[in-house]
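Much of what follows relies on a compact textual record of a protein's fold. Here is one such record, which you should read through line by line:
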Amino acid sequence: MVTDNLLGVFNLLGCVYARGAFCIFGRLSYLYLNYRSGIEKSGILMIQLLQMIGQTSMRRKRFINEEMKEKDYEILSIKMYLFYGNNREKN
């Protein structure tokens, strides 16, 4: 009973944080709780587990891509400033 409550807390943490170990552990605890309560069958559990791991990796990939875009824009704006800023001073 205590372990089920702890797994429920990790499940909530996994829902709150969209990336990292909490997400994966939270999703696994959700699957385990469903398995313990007998709601789902093992085949559906495996499919759900694969879907959740795939969603987690896609979120992580999307997050990394968004961070890289922001850094690329910052670098581009610095390059534009250096290039055009220096040209304005020369004219």
Q: What stands out?
A: The two ends are 76 Å apart (CA to CA). Residues 2-90 form one domain.
